[in-house]
Design goal:
alpha+beta, single chain, Spore Coat Polysaccharide Biosynthesis Protein SpsA, Chain A, 28 strands, 11 helices, 467 residues, six-stranded antiparallel beta sheet
């Protein structure tokens, strides 16, 4: 039993729409530092030992790599999905990667959950290992603390060893009365969406019900290719796969499902602003106040500002979240509807659904501080040792002013160094590059001017990041 090796598999494909406007499509909640100095992804990677397999999308690949590097977690692989197909295919790809390893057990975890007591989680994993080694597909059930309607439930069946049970059935998110009955019975647990199983057991069960998914994943893996330090699944094969969750594809049908109940490991899926309020430190009035906030005669609210001053007077049970480009005001009991706001923004093709004002790049980030007809002003940070692509623009010129750090500038056939308070001008059509040769972040102000200042006016001549 001790010969089993646990391989963490972290699924990082979610978009976290219910935490909008803080969470955006290009930088969703798993990358945010919500409860500690680490992001939820980093906390997940640090929760258990071992080099993880990360499954993510193209847009997030460099964020994943950077955040793992920050906590010194070397991934076994960062697998890029060409299209989102839910959790069952993502787990199948990881299982296929370890198919030849008869001693491997996959610990499949969402990247965006909170576990405040990881030692209790690790104890539950240890209890689950013998079951998974016997061919059970183990899930971890959270003992409910309230009749929550936002979670799926698992009913325990016949007892197994190490405090585990066979799964009697999975239940969809219930109404309030049904949830109360579930909790009162003592037989139901919240479905955490965390699993432990062997590659062979999972692939065997999946192949019985959806052989096309297994073969599609096998082809996507076989026809995939390395790209820098990522592995890209073949687009055609993977995009043709039907998307399904692990629960729907396997767990609800197999006779080999087992559940390990976990007592009080401080778990939350952080699925909405009300969950954020519950999991955050509250003041004497029940308020969670973050940023530049004043709350007068206000109770039981979550009020957060990442930009301007926000003041409330005489309100109760509200969520108020202000970012530089959007403000959300909602009753806490209506926070599940935030997803509808995001869906509507997408239908209207509003950029606020996708990204905030700060745009991450492999080399750092930029933030637009002002824009108008024929001009745009950006605040730019280039990380130490990083460089932008060698490029040119047809329709705009750029003025660069160094605020802090050191810039190595290529402009045409010249290269030179700029330091704090020094500046330069890049004419339209000139091949140029910006680098940070120093040990501290380089921060600059860039003023673009010309007949067109859109982000797509860029011709990359050479790029270290394969873009």
């Amino acid at each position: 039993m001790n010969t089993c090796s646990i391989v963490p598999v972290i699924l990082s494909g979610g978009s976290g729409t219910r935490l909008w406007p803080l969470s955006r499509e290009v930088f969703p909640k798993q990358f945010l530092n919500l409860f500690s100095e680490h992001s939820l992804l980093q906390e997940t990677a640090l929760r258990v030992d071992g080099s993880p397999i990360i499954v993510c999308n193209h847009e997030h690949r460099f964020i994943v790599a950077e955040q793992l590097s920050q906590v010194k977690r070397e991934p076994r692989a960062v697998v890029i999905e060409p299209a989102g197909r839910n959790t069952a295919p993502a787990a199948a790809v990881a299982a296929l990667m370890l198919e030849a390893n008869s001693e491997a057990l996959l610990l499949v975890m969402p990247s965006d959950h909170l576990i405040r007591h990881p030692e209790r989680f690790r104890a539950a994993i240890e209890a689950a290992v013998p079951l998974a080694a016997q061919g059970y597909l183990v899930t971890f059930g959270i003992r409910p603390t309230e009749p929550a309607t936002g979670f799926g439930y698992i009913r325990q069946g016949a007892p197994l060893e190490n405090g585990g049970f066979k799964v009697d059935r999975f239940a969809e998110k219930p109404d309030a009365a049904t949830a109360a009955a579930y909790v009162q019975s003592g037989e139901y647990h919240w479905n955490s969406g965390i699993f432990l199983f062997s590659p062979a057991a999972y692939l065997s069960e999946l192949a019985q019900r959806d052989p096309a998914m297994v073969e599609g994943c096998r082809k996507a893996l076989g026809d995939g290719q390395n790209d820098l330090f990522f592995f890209r699944l073949a687009e055609g094969a993977f995009s043709a796969i039907k998307g399904q969750s692990i629960d729907y594809a396997v767990m609800e049908h197999t006779t080999r499902a087992a559940v390990i109940p976990v007592d009080d490991m401080g778990w939350s899926d952080v699925g909405a602003w009300s969950a954020m309020w519950k999991e955050s430190a509250q003041d004497g009035n029940g308020n969670v106040l973050q940023g530049d906030v004043m709350a007068l005669k206000s109770t039981n609210c979550l009020i957060r500002s990442d930009s301007q001053l926000v003041a409330t007077i005489g309100v109760d049970d509200l969520v108020v979240v202000a970012t530089p480009d959007a403000v959300l005001v909602a009753r806490k009991d209506c926070d599940q509807a935030v997803k509808q706001v995001v869906d509507d923004l997408r239908r209207r093709e509003r950029s606020e659904a996708v990204q905030g004002t700060r745009i991450l790049r492999p080399w750092g980030w930029f933030q637009t501080t002002d824009s108008g007809e024929r001009f745009r002003v950006k605040h730019i940070q280039v990380n130490p040792g990083a460089k932008l692509s060698l490029q040119k623009h047809w329709h705009r010129s750029e003025h660069w002013v160094v605020v802090t750090g050191t810039a190595l500038v290529t402009c045409g056939d010249k290269s030179f160094v700029l330091r704090e308070n020094e500046s330069t001008f890049i004419p339209a059509g000139t091949v140029h590059r910006l680098e940070n040769p120093g040990k501290v972040p380089l921060r600059m102000i860039e003023v673009q001017s010309g007949e067109y200042v859109g982000e797509d006016d860029i011709v990359r001549i050479e790029d270290e990041y394969g873009r």
